[in-house]
What does this fold into?
Amino acid sequence: MKRIVLITGASGGIGSAIAKRFVDSGCAAVLQYRTNRESVERLCASFPQQAEYLSVSCDLNDASAVREMIAEIHRRLGTVSVLVNCAGVALPQKLFTDTTDEEYDLVFDTNVKSLLRLTRLLADDLRHNHGSVVNISSMWGVTGASCEVLYSASKAAVIGFTKALAKELAPSDVTVNAVAPGLIPTAMNAHLSADELDSFRLETPLNKLGTPEDVADAVCYLSGARFVTGQILCCDGGYTI
It folds into this structure.
């Protein structure tokens, strides 16, 4: 029986690479996005003809919309075996003292609160299928980053959530892990100049930047590693060593 994998943020660079990797491995993929329908349509067009997938527009901050999405997944495909919480947002770099309450709400609602809500609503699916959760954190959630305090704090919260939930769901044979990517050149980092990207490369022990496919490899590994739980896999070329 095919594993049904729900990937949030599937319209982004990392989310789309994760979705493609699961589809290529024979899984049925649910691609959640909020507004970027064109990106998801391009992604779906790249899938093999026999691929089984479902794309769903859903605001993860709307509890009723999330419940409707889950009901549609159940109707169309079945219960979810793997949840990949990839949807996220970052602010332009700025001093913490220059951030606003509205920006705090945006970052934590998107990166933390929506993730907790969706995982809670899918807990029965995951228990039923002895499933797995893979959360996308960040190397800044591990080390913190100046001028990215809200983002770093939200991604650190994802790490704490991952470790705690792993203990809670372990008796149900559900694994919960996280990937903490380093700098991945995607739309989220499009504001960085070529010199800034090269500076990151030079500070990375492997002397290169990562790709969305590198993160997808780590996610797919953790989704199938049945004796690995509560772990934070840094996919950063050694930057946080």
